[in-house]
Design brief:
245 residues; alpha/beta; four-stranded antiparallel sheet; globular
């Protein structure tokens, strides 16, 4: 059984179908990327998967339990880090626990061990404006992790970073995901990023939007940096570009 599933999801607004017949699965410790042109319905799908919106038809299932329309079961991180500027990093990260009813002192104590794990040690009392873009993104990802410890939805999580910082974040995310056993579905407009990070890439297209192709990424080269300049990587890129066109 898959850890997380969407079954035949469809959504309509004012009689217009936005997405239809979208089904996907996420296994434990897997990274799946969703790519597609702007306006195809990726954000609508994520809002449904996270429980923020109820689909017109279809089901969302987590670990065998239907959670359709139930917010708070799945973590969802938007493109911007959305850290509150007037709260310390410590209190930003503890916020999900506080919202769930944990006392502030207990919430702060609970998140402390994760600072070292996420490479954020020493930032507890700082404010978001005092951190680099990469560090802010780490803090935002840790806060997202506090909402749900098994599945996260990330909407273009690295798009605001410069190329060098983005590459370092990619390598860091792969390490932290393996360490904390986190399963991820993320949206990206960067095909290189999708191939570099993912176990599978899903292509969303059409009007209404639907998943037209699923491509497993099989790496014959273990080192991902070496893989990213290999003929195999280029072949995947050409294949994905063809579907997007």
């Amino acid at each position: 059984m898959a850890l997380f599933e969407a079954k035949k999801i469809a959504q309509s607004y004012e009689g217009q179908e936005i997405i239809k017949n979208v089904s996907l699965e996420l296994e434990a410790n897997e990274i799946v990327c969703l790519i597609g042109t702007s306006g195809v319905g990726k954000t609508t799908l994520f809002q449904i998967l996270s429980g923020l919106h109820q689909p017109t038809t279809g089901q969302v299932v987590l670990d065998g339990e239907e959670i359709t329309g139930q917010a708070g079961k799945i973590s969802y991180m938007l493109q911007k880090d959305m850290l509150l500027p007037y709260r310390t990093i410590e209190d930003n990260i503890a916020l999900p626990l506080i919202l769930q009813g944990t006392k502030k002192k207990e919430a702060r104590a609970h998140v402390q061990p994760y600072f070292e794990e996420f490479g954020l040690e020493g930032t507890q009392k700082k404010y978001p404006s005092q951190l680099s873009g990469g560090m802010r993104q780490r803090a935002a990802l840790l806060r997202t992790y506090m909402f749900s410890h098994n599945v996260v939805l990330l909407d273009e999580p690295f798009s605001a970073l410069d190329a060098l910082t983005k590459h370092e974040m990619h390598k860091w995310y792969l390490k932290i995901m393996e360490k904390i056993q986190l399963s991820t579905i993320f949206v990206s407009h960067d095909i290189n990023e999708a191939i570099y990070l993912s176990d599978r890439v899903m292509v969303m297209a059409g009007t209404p939007g639907t998943i037209i192709k699923e491509i497993p990424i099989v790496r014959t080269i273990e080192n991902r940096d070496d893989f990213s300049v290999s003929p195999q990587f280029l072949a995947y890129k050409k294949q994905l570009l063809a579907y997007l066109r």
